[in-house]
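To close the chapter, one final illustration. This time we ask the reader to focus less on the individual chains and more on the assembly as a whole: which components sit near each other, and how the overall shape emerges from the parts.
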Amino acid sequence: MTTHAIIERIAAIVGPQGLLTDPRDLEPYVVDWRGIYRGASPAVVRPASTGQVAAVVELCAESGTPLVPQGGNTGMCGASVPHATGREIVLSLARMNRVLEVDALNNTMTVEAGCVLANIQQAAAEADRFFPLSLGAEGSCQIGGNLSTNAGGVNVLRYGNTRDLVLGLEVVLPDGRIWNGLRGLRKDNTGYDLKHLFIGAEGTLGVITAAILKLYPRPAATATTWTAVPHPEAALEFLSLLRRHCGDRVTAFELVSRNCLDLVLHHIPGARDPLPKAHDWYVLAELSDSHPGHALRRELEVALEAAIENALVLDAVIAENEAQSRALWRMRESIPEAARAEADMLYRHDIAVAVSKIPEFIREARSALVGRFPGVNIICFGHLGDGNLHYNAFVPGRKRNDAAAREARDVTVVVYDIVQRHHGSFSAEHGIGLAKLDEMRRYKSPVEIELMLTLKHALDPRGIMNPGKVLSGDG
Amino acid sequence: MTTHAIIERIAAIVGPQGLLTDPRDLEPYVVDWRGIYRGASPAVVRPASTGQVAAVVELCAESGTPLVPQGGNTGMCGASVPHATGREIVLSLARMNRVLEVDALNNTMTVEAGCVLANIQQAAAEADRFFPLSLGAEGSCQIGGNLSTNAGGVNVLRYGNTRDLVLGLEVVLPDGRIWNGLRGLRKDNTGYDLKHLFIGAEGTLGVITAAILKLYPRPAATATTWTAVPHPEAALEFLSLLRRHCGDRVTAFELVSRNCLDLVLHHIPGARDPLPKAHDWYVLAELSDSHPGHALRRELEVALEAAIENALVLDAVIAENEAQSRALWRMRESIPEAARAEADMLYRHDIAVAVSKIPEFIREARSALVGRFPGVNIICFGHLGDGNLHYNAFVPGRKRNDAAAREARDVTVVVYDIVQRHHGSFSAEHGIGLAKLDEMRRYKSPVEIELMLTLKHALDPRGIMNPGKVLSGDG
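The assembled structure is written out below.
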């Protein structure tokens, strides 16, 4: 079947409002949001229902037409855009954006895959509940994409990743059949737990069309503190202490290096050092509770007193109100922007090691980079409580418009090799997509790659589902 | 290769202490702990290391010899014992019982699959941490079995199932290769999350040999209350209220019918009604916190006052100390024993529906059973907070030694059909094994069964890994 014939048949399935073919309309769908991964597609399909998705996928399976499932196209690794070959059809879930049901008593919510994350948060709040997934792109990312990439976000320490926030899925399989696993049960041991195949698979094993999400009590009180710590080891002990005092109420625990703070103070208008003296390391920590009132703040004060007594914390400020809390968070959240203003060519690494290995990793990576790249500037910050650091670096003189600098892997290989030695992950949150196919080959064991290929071939024997993403050699 | 030749080669791999062939020695391994499922085996293999497991599995893969992986043999569905054909070799993990590492800062613990659960709890406590999995069999069940069955236990409401307590696995695949996924990372998006295939697979996709488990802060305070509630709907509203007041501190929330309490008072020596008047329904609820002191008890009192004001709770007693708390729990934990003393032939159902559907399910199931089986006695209790009920019944006159009564499915089909109509699960905790193969055929969708078979065939093409369990027709 020619591409033209296939598109005609797709048009018959989804109708004119479900199909884009004019190249000007295709533009936002074929390039990622940062303009790094640019592909081409004969058409963008925008189904209105699971039935339409299934019919389209079935047609593509029969004709061997490759598909690229796409949510909000806010990913970091190019998983959601087609290759430049122009043979892959983009399958956008954007029109399937409804909240289907909110069951407050059961603490669940059923949503279509194209639902925007911010709308999901809103619907939960309206039901006096809380959906904990929160990330920078929440105004435009869609839950199907969050599920496909197992998005992390700021609340992982307390609530887990997206994988931990889901009870069931509805998925269109690569042969077009619909698997309806939408059961809002917390306990169900009737066979293999199939949803976990599709979560984090970046669209390579099937198209997620709906999900049942978990809801939580609304946080009614928060207590935020910006602290100075002598070194990362102290930060870790401080985390243990905070957990001992405050248990599950510890919701965020972010590490920030002096260097990061300097960049923010330098580049971000209105930014002010929360503490009077300069320190080498900082922790931004937050507690939250479903119970309102001041007990939480007192709990934090008691914990800080103990931390200061034990020289784990050198100085601290507690936010007096919501506005102050947001100002402290803005220090942390502005770091990427400040880094971009400072560094023309920033090498970014979204890595994870066991929490207990973070101090060792920081030392070894610094030592290795400084040894190899004189004048290297290390920008180190992140979710210490999860073991996930944004460990970025720039080398003076390297510019983004210099292809050699842009494509250089020398800095990255040094960092990832150290991560590997510590049994860590070279992609804690962002996934693989196109961006990290080389790393998959370099760092994953052959057994692991073969297991993944076995699953891929078993579920998608024709290789139509987002080919060339996550795994290479899956054609 | 003859069976004899295979066993000789296995003996060369594991040595004499790793192999049992005398039928008297085999007895505890070939029959389940309740004596319901009796099989036969030519030998029981007890490897001492992952390397030995791998070599044995490789040999079995080459020769097409079926294996039955076994932990503590405490399961409820016969998944861990061989069939009566006598062709399957039992592979016991019992000798691989070491705690390999405890990393308190990272809140993880690495264990071999044959580690007894109670020993794991103990090792966590010694490191000032808490491993939340707790069930009746914890003195003899092994973590590999808990993982393979995705065991639930009493703390699911707060901490989740076994699946939620694991960061990584080491698994010997059906071809004998070792997949080492022992990374203690909370964030790792480098490809498919393979561990979830093996968790809950009841030994049909590979042999779990080690795991990295999550640790939590030790509970330092608990507050337990036995309450009377007017009906299950009120119990649900009470749960919402308790969650609003106490958030994550709600650790257990158990529903008990009047009938269950009567049975306990009648059959269990020393049992006393905690409340002065008789009521129709009860809830046993518990809060716990890592922070010691009396704040938790006060929090519970405030919540109970609100619940009583709203007529959700009619009467309540709070345990004054540990001994009183245990006495209240004994009321709940003795129900199975009391039921067995009363009923000769008890039909047991471990079901789950959405929490919000529990009251409707209870009404419909009662109505259907009473209509069909005059004099039926319903014993309904369980983990209301998870939506998981032990919904049991006995019909007067039916006796266990009557084969027809024992094999009758009439009561069970009525209950499960209602569960199905509510999109629930016919096996919330206990798994499938041999016991529920019929239910798999009756209640799981064809797409779901085929997906599972696809995975099974892809990972275990020779069908040697615990054949005939979970899925039929997988030969």
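The longest helix of chain A spans residues 232-246. The two ends of chain A are 20 Å apart (CA to CA). With these observations in hand, you are ready for the problems at the end of the chapter.
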